[in-house]
Automatic annotation (TrEMBL), chain A:
Residues 4-268, 272-312 form the WD repeat-containing protein 54 beta-propeller domain. InterPro entries: WD40/YVTN_repeat-like_dom_sf, WD40_repeat_dom_sf, WDR54_beta_prop. It comes from Cyprinus carpio (Common carp). This is WD repeat domain 54.
TrEMBL record, chain B:
Residues 257-276, 354-378 are annotated as: Disordered. This is Organic solute carrier partner 1. Residues 259-276 have a biased composition (Polar residues). Pfam families: Oscp1 (PF10188). Coiled coil: none annotated. The lineage of its organism: Eukaryota, Metazoa, Chordata, Craniata, Vertebrata. It comes from Cyprinus carpio. It comes from the Eukaryota. One of its GO terms (cellular component) is cytoplasm.
């Protein structure tokens, strides 16, 4: 029996959301009964922590600090939390490189600079696509198509670049790791790019490419991996489900009339059927996330909107 | 982000500027001979079609771009007061923001650009010299942009939207046509044809391992979409299909803006450019190159010049200047090249040293320094 969602009180942001793929990240901190949200606005990350009782909100803004430069106007492409068994890190990707912070955004623990050319080139340079894989990896995509694999210790800042995966030829758009919690799944990570190509990987000392699923001449902007199934959203508005390891097309949904910007699944529901739709009037949605694993609540952000809109099941 | 954004921004804003000024001149009933009807359009068009723009580069700040358009607007004998210039720029930017947001696909921004180019070509069609410049620029647009993928166009679109972030100036013609709400946000219809390449939402297909369709299901998506129209032409000439970017003004549809009704909380205006200098050095270099060759027309002879008012009366124009909210003020760097002979000579020297090459001179950063130092002294 599918349940309807209804709109909840929105969370105000200090500045509006920029039109970027997957522009909303959510971190649920059960022990403290709070949920963190991050939304990117140009060169700033807006962080809001919301208490579950709805009474307390606190805000923080992070600017993309690069290396030694105190302030910077480098634009941020994405901000996302990476949940590892021993620690949660907030990862920011920008035109200049990749930064990793402690989960509350208080301290930067790692900075990786991209090779930015002296004079701008026809192809833009940036990092985009963030995923935490298994116990100790954080993978980040780059505009060249490379996927950088970082080895993350259980604490401290001794994070190292362990491998660079070169399968994609177009800019990485999004990455996702297996989210069902099922350790028996062979595939650990899926990466997507502007040509719609999906690469399915197994993590390890050396990451292993399990499969390449070609695109159909359209960008894949958002991707998820659940029980070995790749769920991908495309620029044509379609959502496709593939069996990751074999590449078999399982389902195809003509879901939207515009380019899909963000896609999320609630890992504990096990549902793939249409339940509900909603229209956020006059707003171009750029981020969409479930706030919990059961899919009880979800949140969306929109371009030029200075609030996070929330929906919960009735 | 995308290094291919500036030409599209410049050409589309420039196109809107021509539409608006054309409408205002007709509305003001400036005598045809005084307006030298074609001339100002020729001059602006010539300045818009600058090859400099096509070099891969980051998008410039709002300030720098506004300064360029300020200079451009004064390149002919047309005169605009501060208030009218502000309003002109408001209209230009809101119009292009609207077009970018409403484009069904990111690639359609190129069709919008072609609509502007088609109109510009029509303005200058009787002047072979300028017409060939327009054709050249059009060819470059085709060469550079038609091979780009949908994803790359999306990046251009995202870069443009960052430039337009938080701009919610209300435009009369948009309000009347109900494409903009009273809070300044644009109406996004959930009906009409889907973009080229997209299917009408609603169908779910499930497949077997061997690839055959097992079953289909329909769901209601809440919209009211129809099949896509044919794709517009990306050639030099052709039916663009999309109407965005065509001239929406006419004598009977005036251009007006409302200064109120923008974001309620002005603390939301997070500035993108946080560098301590008013303009980054590269921006100054571009400015210098774009201004090089721009003859600033002396306004001493009132007979040969004419003033364009973007408002209905002079009083309204003055009132608009006084009452413009702080958060909407455009910080324009004023370079009074005509006033100070010494400054003018320095500027001319810098201009002269740039030459025709598209690659910046090795010591171009020092040129930026010179210009910056000069402006600091103004």
């Amino acid at each position: 029996m599918s349940k309807m969602y209804h709109k909840e009180k929105s969370i105000q942001l200090k500045s509006s959301a920029s039109a970027l793929y997957n522009n909303l990240s959510v971190l649920r901190i059960a022990p403290r009964c709070i949920t963190y949200f991050t939304v990117v606005h140009a060169n700033v990350v807006n962080m809001v922590s919301a208490s579950w009782d709805g009474l307390n909100y606190s805000h923080r803004q992070l600017q993309s600090k690069e290396g030694n430069v105190a302030t910077s106007s480098s634009l941020i492409m994405q901000a996302a939390w990476c949940v590892l068994p021993s620690r949660d890190l907030l990862v920011l990707t920008s035109q200049k490189g990749i930064q990793m912070y402690e989960s509350d955004g208080s301290i930067m623990v790692y900075w990786h600079a991209l090779d930015t050319p002296e004079t701008p080139t026809a192809k833009a340079v940036f990092a985009r696509g963030i995923a935490a894989v298994r116990e100790k990896y954080i993978c980040v995509g780059v505009s060249s198509g490379s996927v950088l694999v970082f080895d993350v210790p259980s604490k401290g800042s001794n994070i190292t670049l362990s491998e660079v995966l070169e399968e994609h030829k177009e800019a990485i758009t999004d990455m996702a790791s297996e989210c069902s919690g099922n350790l028996e799944c062979i595939a650990d990570l899926v990466s997507a790019d502007d040509s719609g190509l999906l690469c399915v990987w197994k993590s390890g000392e050396d990451f292993q490419l399990l499969n390449k699923i070609p695109g159909f001449d359209t960008s894949c902007s958002s991707v998820k991996l659940w029980k070995g199934t790749v769920i991908a959203g495309y620029g044509t508005g379609q959502i496709r489900l593939y069996e990751g390891v074999t590449g078999i097309l399982l389902a195809e949904v003509n879901a939207h009339a515009r380019w899909i910007y963000s896609l999320d699944i609630a890992p504990f529901t096990g549902l793939i059927e249409h339940m509900y739709n909603e229209c956020v009037t006059d707003t171009q949605i750029c981020g969409a996330r479930f706030c919990d694993g059961d899919g009880y609540a979800f949140a969306v952000t929109g371009y030029d909107l200075s609030e996070i809109i929330r929906y919960t099941q009735a | 982000m995308s290094t291919r954004t500036l030409p599209l921004l410049f050409i589309n804003l420039g196109g809107e500027m021509l539409y608006i000024l054309d409408q205002r001149l007709r509305a003001q009933n400036i005598p045809a001979d005084k307006a030298k009807k074609g001339r100002w359009q020729l001059i602006y068009t010539r300045e818009l079609m600058k090859q400099e723009l096509f070099k891969p580069q980051e998008l410039y700040s709002k300030k720098a771009l506004r300064t360029v358009f300020d200079r451009l607007a004064h390149a002919s004998i047309m005169r605009l007061n501060q208030a009218s210039m502000d309003k002109l720029y408001d209209l230009m930017t809101m119009a292009f923001k609207y077009q970018v947001l409403l484009c069904p696909r990111p690639k359609d921004i190129l069709l919008v650009s072609f609509n502007h180019m088609d109109a510009i070509r029509d303005f200058v069609k009787d002047t072979p010299g300028i017409l060939s410049q327009v054709d050249e620029t059009n060819k470059q647009l085709i060469e550079i942009y038609t091979p780009l993928s949908g994803g790359e166009f999306q990046l251009i679109r995202q870069t443009l939207l960052i430039f337009f972030q938080d701009m919610h100036i209300r435009v009369s013609i948009f309000l009347k046509d109900k494409v903009q709400n009273s809070n300044g946000r644009f109406v996004l219809p959930t009906s009409g044809p889907v973009p080229y390449g997209t299917h009408i939402p609603g169908l779910i297909r499930i497949f077997s391992c061997s690839g055959e369709e097992l079953r289909r299901m329909q769901f209601r998506d809440g919209g009211n979409y129809s099949a896509t129209l044919r794709e517009g032409s990306f050639e030099m000439y052709g039916d663009r299909v999309i109407k965005l970017g065509t001239n929406m003004y006419s004598v009977s549809r005036p251009v007006e803006t409302h200064m109120s009704g923008t974001s309620k909380n002005s603390s939301q205006h997070t500035k993108v450019n946080t560098t301590p200098n008013p303009l980054a050095k590269e921006e100054l270099n571009l400015l210098a190159r774009l201004m090089g060759g721009l003859e600033v027309q002396k306004s001493t002879n009132t007979d040969s010049g004419f003033r364009v008012n973007l408002f209905a009366t002079d009083e309204e124009e003055e009132e608009a200047l006084i009452s413009r909210p702080d958060e909407l003020s455009y910080e324009v760097i004023s370079i009074q090249a005509t006033k100070d002979k010494q400054t003018n000579a320095a500027l001319a020297k810098i201009m002269g040293e740039f030459g025709e090459t598209s690659e910046p001179a090795p010591s171009s950063s020092s040129k930026g320094d010179d210009l910056l130092a000069m402006m600091d002294g103004l």
